[in-house]
Sequence to fold (292 residues):
Amino acid sequence: MTTQLQTMPAVAPAMIAALTTVRRRPDESTPVPDLATRIDGVSVNPRALAAYRTVCGFDSTSHLPVSYPQVLVAPIHLQVMNRKGFPIPLLGMVHLRNSIEQLRPIEALETLGFSVDVGQLRRVKMGLEIDVNTECRGKDDEAPVWRSTMTILHRIKEKNGGGFRKPPGAPASLVESQNALTIDIAEDTGRRYAKVAGDYNPIHLHALSAKLFGFKRAIAHGMWTQARCCAELERACAQATRSVDIEFKRPIFLPGKATLKWAEGEAGIEYGLLGRNAGEVHVLGHLQAGLR
Fold:
């Protein structure tokens, strides 16, 4: 049964409640109940949208950036993950992958509705992963106009003591591509993005809080990384994004520097965010442009 919310949950109490989730001890057999949640009547704050564009690098247009609906629905994600039955502790969880499909441009002045549901746990080499699925509708739409799947990880070291495997290098198509752009990422990027997106996971905010979860410094938000890549690729091809998939391979430590490389083909744009050498891959993804 779907839970219908009348107002958007407040973020601050939800972040405090997230502290209590550290007691969760899931394994692959832990069942996940029906956590479906819906909210209608969501509108965009123009000042918040402008701040988001600035932090992520999007140009100003009459429609929402492809990644912005996920910011609007983030308080619902947090509320769902705080609910009894969601198996993964919120603090320290890692965003593994994200996919977005946009079926039409969403105007900034539209009133929107969101529905969120959660999949079942899957055991993978690095631990346990789970999908959080979202659909967005306009006020008069019967079918979704935007949808996303966010895959998150609860890290568990391998029983044989082998630790986490080194991710593979960049594919040759990206290494050889002449399409490249250097991106400087400031130390305060995590705090600036948290302010506009409401994601105050401590692994993104400061080196001291990130060290509590095994990171040497704070790392960039996955959704900031996806947004920044989309913003630059949209400028490069002069078209809006229809769909985008991203896999997060290595953390981007703050401050940092990365090179966005991309290769265009019949199936769309293959892209990657690379470190100081092509063997260090932060993200890999695929983008289809040409939204109408």
Summary: The chain has one domain: 3-289. The domain at 3-289 is CATH 3.10.129.10 (Thiol Ester Dehydrase; Chain A). The longest strand covers residues 127-138. The chain has a mean pLDDT of 90.
